[in-house]
Each structure stands twice: as C-alpha cells, then as structure tokens.
Amino acid sequence: MLLIHSPVSKPGEPPPGLARLAFALKSNGVGCRVWDANLEGLLYLLERPVAASDTWSRRAAAHVTENLSALRSPTICESLDRYKRAVMDINRLVHKTGRKTGSHITLANYVDARFSPVRSKDLLRAARAFDENPFYPFFRNRLAELIGNDHPELIGFSVNFMSQAVCAFAMAGFVKKNWPDIQIIMGGGLVTSWMNIKGFMDPFYPVVDDLIGGPGEDALLSITGHTDTQAVSQAGVDYADFPLDAYLSPGRVIPYMTSRGCYWQKCRFCPEKFERTRYQVFDRPSIGFDLSRLRLETSPALIHFVDNALSPAFLNYIVNNPPGVRWYGFVRITRHLTDPDFVHGLKDSGCAMLKLGIESGVQDVLDSLNKGISIETVSRALRTIRAAGIAVYGYLLFGTPAETYEKARQTLAFTLAHADCIDFLNLAIFNLPVGSPEAEHLQTVDFYPGDLSLYREFAHPNGWNRNVARRFLEREFKRSAPIRGIIKKEPPFFTSNHAPFFKKLSVSNF
C-alpha cells in the first residue's frame, strides 16, 4: 500500500494523519510506504526555477540553497526580518514556476483557474489532463519509481484541504491511466466534509475506486482483511518514512494527536457538530509512552498537538507528565487558564504557545455562537497566560449573524485593551457551513458555485455582510498601532506553525 500526502499544503512538518495510518497498518503486518509528495514536489519546483526576468526572482534563485538552509536553522528566528526575507524569496520561486502553467502556487496554497476544487466535473477533468499539472514532471517519474519498486495493490491519497484536491486528482488520473489495476482510495478531512454534503453521491468513479470518511485506520485494515482490530482508538504514529530534516522549519516539528473530534461539540456553526464527529480520547499511558518514544527516535525541537482542542483533563495530564520537549496546541478558553498555578505548570511542562479561539470581544456574540465562555474569563485567561510567559495566538471571527458594526468595534476595543497579552492574531471572516441547520433561517446563495462547495453566502440580518466586515478590518481594525505591531510579527505563509519558534522558553530543561 502506498499512502500519499498531496500538494499543496504548508511544508513545515509531516502530516500526522498519514503517520497514524502507517502505524496502524505496520502494527498489523500490512506493508505500506508513506510519501509526502507535497514536500518533495515543492522542493522539486525550487530546484528547477523558471528563468527569472525580474530582480527579485533573480535574487531569490541565486540564494535559494542559502535560504532553504537558513529556514531549517533555529538561528533564523533571531531576526524576523531575515526570516521573512528567506520565506518570501522561496515563495517567489514557487509562485513564478506555477505562473508558467497558469496556476497560482504558494507555500500554503494552490489555485488553478482551469479546475475548481468545488466542482466534481473539474476534478475529473484535472484527472484526465494530468500532464497539464505543474507538478506533473515531478510526480510522473517519482510515482513510476515508487510503483515499480513496491508494486502496491492500493494507493491512498490524503486530501485535507481544498489546496490539495486538484493535484491529488491529477496524480490519481496519472495512476489510473498507466496502472489501471491499482485500487485508488481517497480520504482525509476534505473528503470527509464532501461525504457529509446532503445528496452527495460519490461522483469520482472511475478515477477513485472508494472514499473513506472520518478515521481511516480501521477502514484500510478492513480492506486488507484485518477485521478484528480497533486501531482507530489507539495512540501511535510512525514517522519512519518522512524526511524529517527536509521540512521547512527552524527545527524538527512532530505533530501528535491525543484525541479525535472536539470535547465541547456545542459551537453553533462548527462542522464537527453537524457532521456528528464522535469525540474520542486515546489512552493516556499509551500517549505518554508514545511521546517518550518519539522524543528518543526523532529528537524534535517542537511537539505540535493537532487536536481540535486540548481538553483541560489532558492539560492537567501534561502538567504532571511533561513530554520533555517544547510544545503548543489549540485550547478552548476555560477557567483553568485563569489559575496562575495551573498556567505556570503548563509553562514548566514546555508549553511555548497556546492557540485560543477568542472569536469576539462581545458577550452576546459569544453566546450566539454557543462558545460557553464569558468575556471576563477570556480577559483573565489572557493576562494569566501572559504573566506565565506563554505566547498567545489569538483567533478572531468577524461577520457572524449576531455581529454588527458596533459590536465589531467593541471587539476592536477589547483587542486593544489586551494587545500586550496577544502575540499573534488570525483575523477571519465568517463562512456559513452548507450543512449548518442555522442556514435554513438565513437568505443564502452559493458561496462558490459547485456540487462540492462547503459554504453558503448569506444576507446578513444586520447588513454586516462579508464585504462590509472586510472593509472594517482593512480600514479600521488593522490601522491601530498596537494591532499593526501584532500583525507584523506574523510568520508569512507558515503562520501559527512557525510562530512558537519566535517565543523563547526560559526553562533549563528545554
């Protein structure tokens, strides 16, 4: 079995989903190889840049080896300007290469005007026109090599983001054309969301033989004849097939998942809620053993906990069982984060950064989203985390149905009042999920026209539509000096994945 992580997504760390699949399969005696085609594909483009016709591109091409080396060194974080220059130069080369084929490629995205990832007919056309894909010269030879060496009976494509869909189908089309007997399966977060669209009828045959929604461990084991396993409930990852030192990060990053789903499951517009994703916690002793093994085998600079939200119970566990490595992850704001002793315990366990879904600085907006938090708790948590020396990556959401211009300005005032407690900011415009029950009570139109679209555009009940909210962000919210200062610290393209590297951890054990 060959499992493939498709282009394009951020090439800063290996994909945790495929590492879990590899562990489950190998633990049950199933031969498999994992291939990060995203990382290799982007490096392939960088090794063969198009002829430069402008000064910036010529400079970037002349220094590509130097910039790649610098981006993989922790010393790059001593100068944010040097870091940004290296990232922007690397991205420049990727972008210029994509333009040659009419594609818009960055270190975090892929857009092709010819093939929309929200239209199944376009994805099937991308599969037929695989030789028009900018990565074709790369995957043509590499897939032939891997298939020739390992003779896989099944190839699985992991598709988690819209930015991966077109390339995944181009690669699948190439395989079907040249090795029609190989079974092709697709899974991952995006595929799961597609399968939860009302009326979805699997439009991808004959390019894709089967789709897997949700966790893939038990499904793949069942396909291979292993029907008595419960791999989906077990902790464990296998990063043996991943070139850990080739990723573009200032140190090895090992992603790790301690649970599936979300323990809260009450946020009003969360797809996890109406997709009925079951919350599942992995065995804590197994997690502890696994983290110790990974520390010894991979010598990570950073553990990235990729759970939807680390529960207070797990945070308490890690305070008492430190992993011995710096770590970060997403957490819900709860009263636990207002306890100085608890938060200092997180810092002492190696916590470099917490990602926090603040969403709004207005209580009734938070209540309308069913966030289950008070604005007073948010304020106290931010100040407690700051006092402990842990970085905060805050997420704000604008344009929700309950928000107005006045309430958005209150969020601006709240952010300014806590600017000294926020290291990084993600400012997002609300998207209405297509399957949300609340969509029935709003006047909606297609967000992106296509049978695979996951969102709907809606007429805001208060006139606070997306374009109005976006103007507010650009013309008012971002113009405040304290907020400009926060935004300037954002690592381009890699955003939260690299942000922890810019936070020093003053603990001798790390």
Task: Kindly describe this structure.
The structure is a single chain. The chain is 40% helix and 16% strand. By secondary structure, it is of the alpha/beta class. It folds into two domains: 2-233, no CATH class; 252-502, TIM Barrel, CATH 3.20.20.70. The strands form five sheets. Strands 8-11-12-13-14-15 form a six-stranded parallel beta sheet. The protein has a five-stranded parallel beta sheet with strand order 2-1-5-6-7, with helices on both faces. Helix 3 crosses helix 5, helix 6 (120-128) crosses helix 8 (162-178) and helix 7 (136-150) crosses helix 8.
Short descriptors:
single chain, 510 residues, alpha/beta, TIM Barrel, 2 domains, 6-stranded parallel β-sheet, 5-stranded parallel β-sheet, 19 helices, 18 strands, disordered C terminus
Show the helix and strand layout.
Elements: E1 2-5, H1 16-27, E2 33-36, H2 37-47, H3 55-62, H4 64-71, H5 80-99, E3 103-105, E4 110-112, H6 120-128, H7 136-150, E5 154-158, H8 162-178, E6 183-187, H9 189-195, E7 210-211, H10 217-223, E8 253-256, E9 259-260, H11 271-274, E10 280-281, H12 284-298, E11 302-310, H13 312-320, E12 327-331, H14 340-348, E13 351-359, H15 363-368, H16 375-388, E14 391-398, H17 405-417, E15 424-429, E16 432-433, E17 444-446, E18 455-458, H18 466-475, H19 481-488
Parallel strand pairs: 1-2, 1-5, 5-6, 6-7, 8-11, 11-12, 12-13, 13-14, 14-15
Antiparallel strand pairs: 3-4, 9-10, 16-18, 17-18
Helix pairs in contact: 1-10, 3-5, 4-5, 6-8, 7-8, 13-14, 14-16
